[in-house]
Amino acid sequence: MMNVAVSDEARPKTGVRAPAPPALISMKQVCKGYGSGESRVEVLENINLNLRQGEFLAVVGFSGSGKSTLTKMLAGLETPDSGTLEMEGQPIIGPSQERGIVFQNYSLLPWLTVRGNISLSVDRVFQHWSKADRRAHVEKFIEMVGLTHAVHRRPHELSGGMRQRVSLARTLAMKPKVLLLDEPLSALDALTRSVLQEEILKIWEEERQTCLLITNDVDEAILLADRIVPLNAGPNASLGPAFAVQLDRPRNKTALNDSPQFKGLRNAVTNYLVAVRQKSRDEQQMASEQPPIQLPDLKPRSMRLPSKAILNAPI
Amino acid sequence: MNWRAVGLKFCKVAGLPILEPFVRLVAGEDPKEQLKEIAKYILVPALAIAVFLGFWGLASKHIVANSVSLPGPVKTFSEGGKLISAHFDQKRLDAEARREKKIEAVQLMQKSAAAEKKAQTVSGQQKEMLLANAAVLKKRAVAAANYRPSSAPSFIDQIFNSLKTVAFGFIIATLIAVPLGVLCGMSPWFNAAITPLIQVFKPVSPLAWLPLAMLVILSLSSSGEPWLPIAFLTSAITVCLCSLWPTLVNTTLGVASVDQDYMNVAKVLRLSWSQQLYKIILPASLPLMFAGMRISLGVGWMVLIAADMLAQNPGLGKFVWDEYQNNSQVAIARIAFSVIVIVIGLIGLFLDRIMICLRNLVSFGNPQTA
């Protein structure tokens, strides 16, 4: 396990915490790696995480630090190599409808319409319901994400933001106990992202569902979450100390931008992440004894641009 | 959706981007741009075709072997026209003959009825004779009513026969290849078992299959009369054996490479095996499956001509072969007509378009135009 010394200034001044509610999902000393022998890469090491009932937890990390592996394990799509991973005291051995997951790339089925995509999961999860009940349930969630006008469209006719709304509605409609959001907004443009952040916030505040958000956006994490856990840079990624977000709800993005508490927290989390990555890089550099590569001093033979034929060549 | 959007969507799905500028032109979009598109996709190809026809005409004047010259385009087209009109003449004659036979059948029936009626009134030997007479007349009437003209199949008949053969072979190939491909795609073990067989049989020439196909057909039909002509079955089975592989390989690829994200969705929903197959795997692999079937149909159509020639199945291949045997100026022109214009050109193109259209119908958001 990586021990990182972070200056005290970077730690937030956490106030007195209310007694923590029981953990819904707990990970203890979980390790996960891929490959075997020489090519084996340890992705996650000694992950300890408690997801409490009714809280919104955000895991923030750089890309490539093993965030997706973490969600896949929580969803049950991957099994940990060692350590225990439990939900309500029962080990997680496979995917379950109790843990709904929203994928980064939407994972909508392109041959189904908006309604078809949502119906697929509703029909499966609520098999014993009557047809009319299921239909009404689907319509309710389509309305919740504001896509009533697009029920008959197929995913390729929707914008990225709309697709992610469908994906969100599909998962919410399953009524999972835990909602796992695997970088749900990172494929979207900045404007759509902020609109969807507010929408997720609104939906969450209505339902107060236990939720785990994986993201690489510190602002997003602070806006949405009760608690932020940084994921140290991988390989051998582990979780850093948690930062509590004690901003009042309902939160407003515009108002938060001026809040000193928000700024302080953002700086603290960002500084921590950057410091940890720098440290891990330094260690790697020290570990590898190869001398720095000397680049040869080359000059191009000609400064001419490549001919038009090359520029126009199909890729 | 207005009619313009419908038209554009049709062009896209049907794989006919040629029509797109016309739709836009009618919808009142910038005519200059659309005319440019029309020039690019219609005038330029038309020009190329004209140049080709020019070269063909030039070549026909200079290529002469055994005092037979290569038919020029004009002659080829006029012969083609004659072939088509010959078909309709033949059909008219056949219809006339059938009508005459029908009238004859009615008359014979009347005569037979009259003889029976007369037999009621008399007795003894005369009655027996009249009854026998009536029976003979009735038999002749039935034969006349069931008359089928025995004229040789015309050019158009042969085209339809070819299409029937290729459709039969192709459908059988698809029925075998798709389930097998799905199995191969879903089970790496099954795939490993069957891959060597595919690799060995795939490059085998269609003509090498033909004697084998004929042997199988003959052994199967030795027990009784086959319900389809042997020549037809031989051609169709040869087509089937050749058009099996592209569909099989593409289906395997399509099923094996279903997006992992879709499979994750299936896993999270804990779909049963059959639900996974019908709701996720098959729809996801349909585009590649249809791409394979398109190649299969193209291969089948190419192979059919050779198979028809060898199996003497009365299709286009036999037509080419027969005309080649009657080595004369007119005959060569017919070959040129059938081979260049009809077979390779229009029908092949048409079949290809149908498959593209089907593929586009099942590949959402990712249509292919070529």
UniProtKB/TrEMBL annotation, chain A:
UniProt membrane topology term: Peripheral membrane protein
Keyword Cell membrane in the entry? The reply is yes
Q: Which InterPro entries match?
A: AAA+_ATPase, ABC_transporter-like_ATP-bd, ABC_transporter-like_CS, ABC_transporter_ATP-bind, NO3_transporter_ATP-bd-like, P-loop_NTPase
User: Could you tell me the superkingdom of the organism this chain comes from?
Assistant: Bacteria
The record's listing under SUPFAM superfamilies reads: P-loop containing nucleoside triphosphate hydrolases (SSF52540)
Q: Which SMART domains match?
A: AAA (SM00382)
Subcellular location per UniProt equals: Cell membrane
Q: Which GO terms describe its molecular function?
A: ATP binding; ATP hydrolysis activity; nitrate transmembrane transporter activity
Report the EC number(s), separated by commas if there are several.
3.6.3.-
**Any idea which UniProt keywords this protein has?**
ATP-binding, Cell membrane, Hydrolase, Membrane, Nucleotide-binding, Transport
- Principal subcellular localization: membrane
- Boundaries of each ABC transporter domain copy? 25-258
Q: Which PROSITE patterns match?
A: ABC_TRANSPORTER_1, ABC_TRANSPORTER_2
Q: Name one GO cellular component term.
A: plasma membrane
The signal peptide stretch is none
Q: What class of enzyme is it?
A: hydrolase
Residue ranges of region Disordered? 280-300
Q: NCBIfam families under this entry? A: ntrCD (TIGR01184)
This protein is called Bicarbonate transport ATP-binding protein CmpD
**Gene behind the chain:** cmpD_1
Automatic annotation (TrEMBL), chain B:
Keyword terms, alphabetized: Cell membrane, Membrane, Transmembrane, Transmembrane helix, Transport
Q: Where in the cell is it found?
A: Cell membrane
User: SUPFAM superfamilies given for it?
Assistant: MetI-like
Q: Which residues cross the membrane?
A: 41-59, 167-192, 204-221, 227-248, 280-311, 331-351
Q: Which InterPro entries match?
A: MetI-like, MetI-like_sf
Please report the stretch or stretches of sequence annotated as the ABC transmembrane type-1 domain: 159-348
Which membrane topology term applies here? Multi-pass membrane protein
> Example GO biological process term?
transmembrane transport
What broad class describes the main subcellular location of this protein? membrane
Record's Gene Ontology CC terms? Answer: plasma membrane
Family matches, as Gene3D superfamilies? MetI-like
**Matching Pfam families, A to Z?**
BPD_transp_1
> Domain of life of the organism in this record?
Bacteria
Family as reported in the entry's similarity comment: Belongs to the binding-protein-dependent transport system permease family.
- List the protein's name: Bicarbonate transport system permease protein CmpB
Which gene holds the coding sequence for this protein? cmpB
